[in-house]
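step: validate -> pass
step: tokenize input -> pass
step: predict -> running
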Amino acid sequence: MQIKINRKHNSNDVIDELFKLFIFRGIPDYIRSDNGSEFTAKVVRRWLNRLGVKTLFIEPGSPWENGYIESFNSKLRDELLAREIFTTMEEARVLNEGWRKEYNQIHPHSSLGYCPPAPDVVMTAALT
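step: predict -> pass
step: emit ->
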């Protein structure tokens, strides 16, 4: 899955992306998110409620409540966003996709014994 790049996201953008994820991975029991307006919007909560998905919000100022995404966001910020000046949205999308592929296929992850999650060898073997 790609990282959605845009100048801002609204509740309909969130629903569109969640819909794609639910089709691909199934409907979860709950979603943990921050209290951003795009996640707390009534339209998103109503949509999730109709699907039977519970919402768990992170307390403001408590990033440790969702350590996985905070760790990912920190790496994305340090390794890409703080190092680049994007002149167009397309440039941001291309550079972001390159970073995402490197992060998922090359970058060693401490939780995996410093191995990449999906190395090229595994990805190639899966395609044949």
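step: describe -> The mean pLDDT is 82.
step: cleanup -> pass
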